């Protein structure tokens, strides 16, 4: 069968298609590198229209990564998708608390989602870091509650939970919170999108350091 | 903040919203259970219009699962998203070969994607099973080549790779192959979708067995 087999060629061709179809618009160069990787990951040009960044959000994320921050995810899918080599090169770690033994017990006890209980565990385990919420609106709501109470201090929140119940509202609450954010407005989002955003930030850091690393 | 915290209530509400917006249309009851879970996962009604099933695809998948088949995925994200409890209850296993030591070496040697090399490893490791391709069109192309050569005999292919380069074409090739399939036409798809389809099948099996298991 005839098809492109070289991973770098596939990515290059994909980025050319995106650049040919979508205008960079309001995004600066670094924001656009993130938006472009999201579009590449979901194969949907419309995502350019729903993405938004707080001022200096990208810089806040990069600064945290330069300090070797933790990246907290709400699902194991997001954890699994983050490029390990780029992560290690940055000296960062991914933490996903949903499978911690206490978390399931806590969620049953309180009749809350495991995602919420996992963010409570993240707060107990330290205050800062980048939070990549790609699945559960409840995780984002809980994060904002804990931040309001001063029990958690995110450097950046990647707020792209998905769903018909609460997703849009959770992002509006994030944008109103004053915490640096990258969001996708409305009900769309997802693990793939969260991963694309984290990896785009990690790749920027690699490029800064003059190394090249791409996921095959 | 005011939001729904109970995971079962969230899923119930979400399914009600979907049933209120999308007509079951051409899908039978089991196909619809799958389509509905996909829409729930991506929060996009349009996916009802791009999903397609070969005749008896669902039964082929369930029959393989009843035999405790392997479920081969093209990415660790899909592997991570599959419900472990439902998987274990079915006696099935998930196999993702992309991180196997030989796979990276083979992909570099041949200038092919790691996803392609992972499917070659899957062929060496046995012939059958359910293949859930949620990311790389090249993995689906390679799978079809190996099937044509008789080196792999999938019970069901969940063909939902995503992307601008080859995704649509790879699905057309799958549908023409005669292998039982579940696809999303065009360039859309993704890990989340592959996971939703596999989990929907596993939940059907659990319901058959009179047990209840849902991911929190």
UniProtKB/TrEMBL annotation, chains A, B:
<dbReference type="GO" id="GO:0009236">
    <property type="term" value="P:cobalamin biosynthetic process"/>
</dbReference>
<keyword id="KW-0169">Cobalamin biosynthesis</keyword>
<keyword id="KW-0413">Isomerase</keyword>
<comment type="pathway">
    <text>Cofactor biosynthesis; adenosylcobalamin biosynthesis.</text>
</comment>
<protein>
    <submittedName>
        <fullName>Precorrin-8X methylmutase</fullName>
        <ecNumber>5.4.99.61</ecNumber>
    </submittedName>
</protein>
<dbReference type="InterPro" id="IPR003722">
    <property type="entry name" value="Cbl_synth_CobH/CbiC"/>
</dbReference>
<feature type="domain" description="Cobalamin biosynthesis precorrin-8X methylmutase CobH/CbiC">
    <location>
        <begin position="9"/>
        <end position="204"/>
    </location>
</feature>
<dbReference type="GO" id="GO:0016993">
    <property type="term" value="F:precorrin-8X methylmutase activity"/>
</dbReference>
<comment type="similarity">
    <text>Belongs to the CobH/CbiC family.</text>
</comment>
<dbReference type="InterPro" id="IPR036588">
    <property type="entry name" value="CobH/CbiC_sf"/>
</dbReference>
<dbReference type="Pfam" id="PF02570">
    <property type="entry name" value="CbiC"/>
</dbReference>
